[in-house]
Amino acid sequence: MQLGRVIGRVWSTVKNSGLDGQRLLVVQPVTPELKPAGKLLICADCTGAGAGELIYWCRGRESSFPFLPVEVQTDATIVGIVDAVDYWPEP
User: Fold this and answer.
1) pLDDT of 91 strictly over 80
2) 79 with 67: CB under 8 angstroms?
3) Cα angle at 13 between 7 and 17, to 5 degrees?
4) pTM of this prediction?
5) What is the arithmetic mean of pLDDT over 54-78?
6) Burial of 21 (0-12, 13-18, 19+ CB in 10 A)
7) Which of 41, 54, 66, 69 has the smallest C-beta neighbourhood within 10 Å, fewest atoms?
């Protein structure tokens, strides 16, 4: 799982039928120091995350597991909302 920040939403009138009713959010991956890292991505959302929230997301086949038994065609899914981050860098 990786950290990210929700920075927007995506609306689509035509999409795979497996994505009907699913929210799609724009996510900026971040480092443990909460600095932007990497390209923006679109994630399905199973948590109800909102704009500006710190989240964690997964990628690959596991990203469809939160929606079982429905088979959702997704490559990245928000699976949690982060309440706090405690980070101690190595000396």
Assistant:
1) no
2) no
3) 100
4) 0.86
5) 90
6) exposed
7) 69
